[in-house]
Amino acid sequence: MNPSSDVFAYRDGTLCCEDVALADIVSRAGTPCYVYSARGILDRFRAYEEALGDLTHRVCYAVKANSNLAVLSLLAKAGAGFDIVSGGELFRVIRAGGDPAGVVFSGVGKTADEIEYALDQGIHSFNCESENELALIDALAARRGVKARVALRVNPNVEAGTHPYISTGMREHKFGIDISEVEGVYDRARALPNLLIEGVGCHIGSQILDTDALIGAIDVMLGLVERLRAAGHPIRHLDLGGGLGVRYRPHEETPEIRAFIARVKEKVRGRDLFVMVEPGRSIVAESGVLLTRVLYRKRTGSREFVVVDAAMNDLMRPSLYQSHHEIIPLRASSRGRIRADVVGPVCESGDFLALDRELENVLPGDLLAVWTAGAYGFVLSSNYNSRVRPPEVLIEGSSWCVVRSRETYEDLVRGE
Ligand code: LLP
Q: Domain for residue 256, yes or no?
């Protein structure tokens, strides 16, 4: 069964994205190649935006999920704020035309240089994760004669029910300030004169399919807001992080953005809070694919292999998280089905896009789309094995353009 989505579908036996046949892109841009749908991205951003509606809010797209300038620019024009975790991400947001005043800076290890850059650009706020960090931001703000708006990222000790590498809201994780200690931190932080401590935030993990976990975290956070306000802290904003899961398998039950936000709204309505969310994956994942070409078929012992020209350096998720990405041909065929490992050219047995997978009986030269690759795809790519990184293409209706060109061998040695 082939997956289909709102923006990717077969027409006359040819896989299309919006109004473009993906094979046409390959004939000009080559493989491997990432392709994104502008409509897919904007529809999902607007689902958040419209569902939050009359609540005072900002949807801060998590730049880490896909930081291509064209994607950021699309979202900036649509009115998105941005969640960043490095100075480099802030640079990208500004370069793409995003407004620093809509930026929140998250992350457990911000450097002094990054904090200074963010203060100079006038970002909205810092989500702070330790008392050391609060003291550093206070000192750097003092030197500039400004006040820095901060929220404390709380670790609410809530189980997210996702892959251990992307679960972040339990006591044993490095993230946030333990919920049992955070009130003391707010009290002590009153002594730091260059901070406006107006917010609370949390982010419990990514690819969360059970929204009860996310809602449970909101309950914990709202209880905290009440206690902090009772203690005289002027808490004005609540940042709920990202984490909503998406469909990687054709018939997987996944949460719907509007339905989830309706539940969030029920919880936070009437509490006089500016609400922020930081979705990444749920905006871009299902709006992107990685296109690749079959190089060879081979058999070793009892195992069948499809060797393709995309590898773990292009899409790291299967090797790193054992994640499932559907793999489907750009042209439907009637050659039947096989069971095989889909592997790349990198010299590691951990280099695979799929293991023991049933897929179309593909032959050398065939083109394939690796599904749900718009988030944490290109951004996690590397030059391992001195492979040039693939181009990125953005489709808007019937037009498309290369929004990052394929690297060259010269790019590989630049700076050496
Ligand atoms: N906010 C914070 C503070 C985060 O750490 C993250 C993701 C997000 C927002 C966005 O979460 P999302 O809505 O995308 O779930 N590379 C992994 C995912 C890492 C997520 C890290 N933090 C993967 O490919 O599954």
A: yes
